[in-house]
Amino acid sequence: MEKFTVLEGVAAPIKQINVDTDAIIPKNYLKTIKRTGLGKGLFAEKRFREDGSENPDFILNKPAYRKAKILVVGDNFGCGSSREHAPWALLDYGIRCVISTSFGDIFYNNCFKNGVLPIRVSPEDLEKLFDDADRGANATITIDLENQEIRGPDGGTVKFEVDAFRKHCMLNGLDDIGLTMEKAPSIGTYENKLKAERPWL
What we know:
The chain has 8 helices and 8 strands. With 201 residues, the chain is α/β, with parallel strands linked by helices. The protein has a single domain (6-173), classed as Aconitase, domain 4, CATH 3.20.19.
C-alpha cells in the first residue's frame, strides 16, 4: 500500500448526501477481484450517459476537476452495501482522500485498508471546505496526516481526528498483509522453534 503523508491537490465538491457504494461503483463492475481498472467505473452512472458519452454536468468531467485527488462530499458518504470495490475505484481513479461529516461504517474501514484517507469534520468545517473546493483548479487543498490538519488555499487550517493505529498504518503504507510481514522475524523464530520441538509436525 502506498504511504500517505502529505497530499496536495484539487478537491472536487459532491454536495449530495447519502451517496451509497452502488453510486460510487455500480454493481456491473463487481465481477473482478482485481484492484486495478476500476477507475473507469467510478460514479459511472453519473459520469456517463446511456450512449457511453461523458456527462458534462458531472463534477469530475469538468476541466477544473479532472485531476482531483480529494473529494469533499455530503453526509453519510459510502453508505449501503459493503463492497470493497468502492475504495478500489476511488484509488484507481486517483482519489486519495475523502472528506465528509460522516461515512458508512464499512466503507470507512475499507478506505483505511486500501490507502484512501477518510476524514470526518464538523458541518461548519465542511462548508468551508466546500467553498474552497468550489474554486476548482484555482485552489488546492493540502492534507497533512502527520499533523492531522487540512490546509486551505488561503492559509486557513482545519484540524481532524484519526485513530492512532490507523494513522500509523497509513503513514507507513501498511495494509493487513504489510502488518503481518512486519512480524515475519517473530513468525520465523516461532516456526523454527516449533520444528525443533515437534519435528513430526
